[in-house]
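Re: How this chain folds, sequence and tokenised backbone to follow
Notation: Tokens come from a learned vocabulary of local backbone shapes, not from coordinates.
Start of record: The labelled sequence and token lines come straight after this line.
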Amino acid sequence: MANRILHCGKFLENYHLCLKYQVVGFTTRGASLGDTIYLAVNHNKKTVCGMRAVLGDATDHKPWPDADRYVIAYSLESIQYCQPFDIRFLAEYGGPYWPLKFLQGAKEIKDEAALSRLESLFEESLLENPYFFESESKHPDPNTQDLEEVEADIDDCQITEETLPDALLAVPEARISIMGTFQTVRFKNETDELRGLEVLVNNNFYSLFPRYTSAQTLLIPENRLFLSSGTEARGDKPLKGIRSIPDGLLIIFSKNDVHPFRVALIEYECFGEGKVRSQEKSNYLNGQVIPQLMRFASAFSIVTDKQIRDQTIYNWIDKIIQYIYSNADHIQKISQWISEINPHLSPQLIGREIDRALTEAFQNALQIILVIDDLTDEQKDTITNVIRAFRLENGESIQFIPYVVRLEQRITLTDGNAEYALSVQ
């Protein structure tokens, strides 16, 4: 497992939110479960560290004002606090460009001497409770100031166009290496067996979304398996257009969360080759996609009659349990989750506990995931606000999580070991 320094830049509010909610976010991928992170921030012209922790499960909880910047977030375990201490001593190990070596992109600390001293200084100043700075800076405007971890410390090492060659010579790993170039092409549609968005995403789900691991989730990619209950659940005449069928379900387990089980309804939508003009996309989004997502949300929200909600939950859980018990691996996985929550539970009662945990998830911890091939930031915000208006039985809003997935065709591969690629659309 790696050791890293996660730098909040000059924004104290983000640092304090990490302490308060015991969660951290990364603007690039690379960190993973079990890594040790040292949390740092710029304060009074010093770069100080005040917390150390181990990365736990990935989480959707991103409490920061600039939450969209973080591609992945983790809950924290084995948390330790200290009296904030200056980490600019790392210049003794990394030279004048030490932020590039130790802070950029929260990269792994490979200098054993530097890591040993960092550990020693941290342990010399341990505190029982987190230290919160008295003064708090205003959140910088993301349109006028770059908040990347490394950018926050560019001034510390005085990198200019003239000194950049020297900086890259001293810290060659700071340069972005490109594995290749790619051309964005269109999916044919959602369901095409060769170039369909839904088909390709389902086949590559866990490699595409490392936020979800196969060990902590169960994907049920059964199109049209789940149908919400209508008014006939209470004996009334059925009404057309009010029922919904998601494209799949994702059951998410995190034993340290308030609700260890969560359920996500997955909807795949694709403009594909048939809708290429802005007006066509807008009409499709407003006329079909958003109403469909609203039907998902309303089926489990308190805006819908409780008898109808309960009937939908009962029917869906019955189908989920049938799906689980049709596969020995699924049985073992879910049983293991239940055992982690309640290790003393009798094996004969696991089935009943699965039913109870899923019922609670539908009532109190529901998410809607939209996977689509094009979506603007403004459209994301609009849909998020619409879905969050629907509340669950515990008063919490239904969570909306959008993912934009595009199909890329290789142009040239140059370095298979590099982390980045360039694509053109």
The chain has 13 helices and 14 strands.
